[in-house]
Every structure is written in structure tokens, then in C-alpha cells.
């Protein structure tokens, strides 16, 4: 069990600046997920924590000790990769115990740890099998078992589920969460899948181009993104961004989307937004679930408008509708029975109590 701290950590590969100064405090027992697009520096950051990459600047602290110059084997961490090659000639028990044997751990201690890990992972009945007699998900569990038996200070995972099919990924995601709830080892988990990040993390770290964009709980990031990048990266279907202006009309602040479409800004936001009247390059950020079919009862800050629907996608429990506003393709989520039809006009409702105003020049949420 340990805290992990990154202080101004930098990684340079020749002229490529892969990680450009990352500061992060990870609490003991915390489950942290690093998420971001391909090439943003997630694996590099993880590998620097593991000691598999030298750092070009800054400090890495594990359990109170600066480990910059400590070799990987002495950092007391266990890593699970996407390619978690098991030894094909060894059975599950031998695969899980191999590392402990190398460390000359007493045989009864090995036996106790392997059986306990097998129980946590629900693979007790597979201990005699060889890897080729296991399904993909079972092999993944064995790879996790190998990490658990070492009882390390920190678990590091790099896209451990990306070789599995969609259904198994979801299942194993739940398994990993259950395991963490049992063993509580500090965990840093890398994925480019924002759903995986949201579902697993105590806190999510969104990375972009070698820097941290935002750190927060899944709900924080979802409801209060601080940048357009985070707003657009977290959530599926993604948040809509509609070019807009703020105007003062008859003493009230209005959000103008097109010549014929404008809506009053929620009263709770007027003080905050007044300074941006007339500012160019503003965007309204609104999630698809905040654009719905019209309903008999209307709440404050909700506004109805008519749109010609271009595409309709039935999802079962909801239907996605697509239309264009001010050149932007917009997605809304409507009731499957709301009668949405491609090419037809539909009365929709925007819930501006959940709006975001974005400065598209700086990429900041205002
Ligand atoms: N050994 C290396 N030599 C030179 N450049 C590297 C090396 N390893 C990584 N990079 C570069 O560093 C940047 C970050 O790479 P990294 O592997 O950390 O990305 P990532 O966020 O894990 O991406 P992915 O989601 O594709 O795995 C990329 O631009 C990559 O090309
Ligand atoms: Mg990677």
C-alpha cells in the first residue's frame, strides 16, 4: 500500500517531448485512471512510474521514497499489460507462483497467497489448467492473479482489456473493480476508453498531448469539465458544440444560435456570463441527454424549438436524433415513442440548466 506522487515529470525521446511536466498526487488505496487519445503520453507516464523508462526531469515518489534511480524490480510494483503472455508450459498455479518462487518465498506462503488470489478472482477450479485450456477472460484473470500474489505497493495496468471482445471487456471491467474493492492496492490504470475510465476510477486523469487537462471524479469530469477537450472526450455520444453569441436584449441575456433561434440564459448564469456579451468564437456545449422531445410540463431554463430531423438512430431504450444548427451536427436523445422521423420537423426541448459556455479561442469552459 502506498501513495504515489509525480512532480513535474518530463519525458523526452530525442526531440519528441512525450510527457511535458505532469504533477499528480495519488492517494493510498486510490484507483486512478489515465485516459486520453492515442499518443498523449499515458503509457510513457505509467512506464516511468514502473521504472521501465528513465525520466528526463522531475521526481517520482512511491510510498514516501523518491524512486527516480531505483530499478523496476526494487520499486515493489506489479504491472499488467495488454499482452500479458503467460508461460504456456506451466499451469495456472505455476504461472501465478513463478515470481514468488524466484524471490525464494517459502512454499507454504506461496500456496497461501496463490489460493487466496485464486479465490478473489474466482479461478480456484482452474489452477491445474494450462493457458491454452482457458478462455481469454480466464487468462486475463490469471495475469491479474500473478500481480495480486506479489502483494505489491502499487498495481499498474496498461490497457489490460483491449485484447478482449466487447462483452468480455465489460465483464472483466466489473471484475477488476471487485478485486480492487477487496485488495485496495493503489492502482494506476491506463486506457483510451472513456467509459472504462469513468466506470473504474476513483479519479480520472484526462491527458492531452503530454499534459494533464483535468483531474477529477468521474461525475466531476462529466458535469464540470474545465476545457472543451475534456467536455468532448468524456461522454458518449459526445457533447454537442454549437457556435453562438451572447446578446443583451431588453435587459435580459440571450444565447443566440442562429438568426431565428435564441434562448434566454439561465438566471443563475447571467452574472457569470455577462462579461462575454459580443465576444466572438463562443460555443454552447450541451450534452445529447439535455436535448429531448417536448413534454407537457416544462421546467425553468428549458426551451422548445422546432428542427428538421436528418437521421434517426433507435437504440432500444432511447432514440438518437441528429439535426444541424449553425453548421454544427447536433445529437439529441428522445423517447423511442416520440415519433422522430428522418426528414420531418420535430418539436424538441433544450435544457439549458446543464449548459456550458466555451471560449473556442482558448478552449476553456467559461
Ligand atoms: N521509445 C520511443 N521513442 C520515441 N518516441 C516515443 C517512444 N515511445 C513513445 N514515443 C512517443 O511518445 C508519445 C507518447 O507515447 P505513449 O506510448 O505514451 O502514448 P499513449 O498515450 O500510451 O498512446 P496509445 O493510446 O496509442 O497507447 C507519442 O508521440 C509516441 O510516439
Ligand atoms: Mg499506450
UniProtKB/TrEMBL annotation:
Q: Where does this protein come from, organism-wise?
A: Enhydrobacter aerosaccus
Q: Which GO terms describe its cellular component?
A: ATP-binding cassette (ABC) transporter complex, substrate-binding subunit-containing
Q: Which UniProt keywords apply?
A: ATP-binding, Nucleotide-binding, Sugar transport, Transport
Where does it reside?
Answer: Cell inner membrane
Domain ABC transporter, residue spans: 4-234
Record-linked InterPro entries: AAA+_ATPase (IPR003593), ABC_transporter-like_ATP-bd (IPR003439), ABC_transporter-like_CS (IPR017871), ABC_transpr_MalK-like (IPR015855), ABC_transpr_MalK/UgpC-like (IPR047641), Mo/tungstate-bd_C_term_dom (IPR008995), NA-bd_OB-fold (IPR012340), OB_MalK-like (IPR040582)
Instruction: Write down what this protein is called.
Output: Multiple sugar transport system ATP-binding protein
Homology family: Belongs to the ABC transporter superfamily.
Q: Which Gene3D superfamilies match?
A: 2.40.50.100, Nucleic acid-binding proteins, P-loop containing nucleotide triphosphate hydrolases
The record gives the membrane topology as: Peripheral membrane protein
Biological process, per Gene Ontology: carbohydrate transport
Q: Which GO terms describe its molecular function?
A: ABC-type transporter activity; ATP binding; ATP hydrolysis activity
Amino acid at each position: 500500500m502506498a501513495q504515489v506522487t509525480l512532480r513535474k515529470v518530463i519525458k523526452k525521446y530525442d526531440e519528441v517531448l512525450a510527457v511535458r511536466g505532469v504533477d499528480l498526487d495519488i492517494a493510498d488505496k486510490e484507483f486512478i485512471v489515465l485516459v486520453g487519445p492515442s499518443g498523449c503520453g499515458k503509457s510513457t507516464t505509467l512506464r516511468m512510474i514502473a521504472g521501465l523508462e528513465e525520466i528526463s526531469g522531475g521526481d517520482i515518489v512511491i510510498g514516501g521514497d523518491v524512486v527516480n534511480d531505483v530499478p523496476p524490480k526494487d520499486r515493489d510494483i506489479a504491472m499488467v499489460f495488454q499482452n500479458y503472455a503467460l508461460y504456456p508450459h506451466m499451469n495456472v498455479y505455476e504461472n501465478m507462483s513463478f515470481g514468488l518462487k524466484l524471490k525464494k518465498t517459502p512454499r507454504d506462503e506461496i500456496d497461501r497467497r496463490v489460493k487466496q488470489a485464486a479465490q478473489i478472482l474466482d479461478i480456484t477450479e482452474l489452477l491445474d489448467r494450462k493457458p491454452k485450456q482457458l478462455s481469454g477472460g480466464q487468462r486475463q484473470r490469471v495475469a491479474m492473479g500473478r500481480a495480486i500474489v506479489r502483494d505489491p505497493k502499487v498495481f499498474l495496468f496498461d490497457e489490460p482489456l483491449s485484447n478482449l471482445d466487447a462483452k468480455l471487456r465489460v465483464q472483466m471491467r466489473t471484475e477488476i473493480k471487485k478485486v480492487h474493492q477487496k485488495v485496495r492496492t493503489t492502482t494506476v490504470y491506463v486506457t483510451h476508453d472513456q467509459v472504462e475510465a469513468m466506470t473504474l476510477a476513483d479519479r480520472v486523469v484526462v491527458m492531452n498531448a503530454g499534459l494533464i487537462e483535468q483531474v477529477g471524479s468521474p461525475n466531476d469530469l462529466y458535469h464540470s469539465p474545465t476545457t472543451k477537450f475534456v467536455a468532448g472526450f468524456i461522454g458518449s455520444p459526445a457533447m454537442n458544440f454549437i457556435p453562438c453569441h451572447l446578446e443583451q436584449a431588453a435587459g435580459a441575456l440571450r444565447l443566440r444560435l442562429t438568426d431565428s433561434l435564441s434562448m434566454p440564459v439561465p438566471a443563475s448564469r447571467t452574472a457569470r456570463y455577462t462579461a462575454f456579451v459580443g465576444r466572438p468564437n463562443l460555443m454552447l456545449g450541451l450534452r445529447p441527454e439535455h436535448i429531448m422531445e417536448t413534454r407537457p410540463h416544462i421546467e425553468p431554463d428549458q426551451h422548445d424549438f422546432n428542427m428538421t430531423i436528418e437521421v434517426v438512430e433507435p437504440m432500444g431504450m432511447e432514440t438518437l436524433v441528429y439535426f444541424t444548427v449553425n453548421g454544427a451536427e447536433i445529437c439529441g436523445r428522445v423517447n423511442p415513442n416520440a415519433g422522430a422521423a428522418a426528414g420531418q420537423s420535430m418539436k424538441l426541448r433544450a435544457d439549458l440548466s446543464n449548459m456550458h459556455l466555451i471560449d473556442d479561442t482558448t478552449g476553456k469552459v467559461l
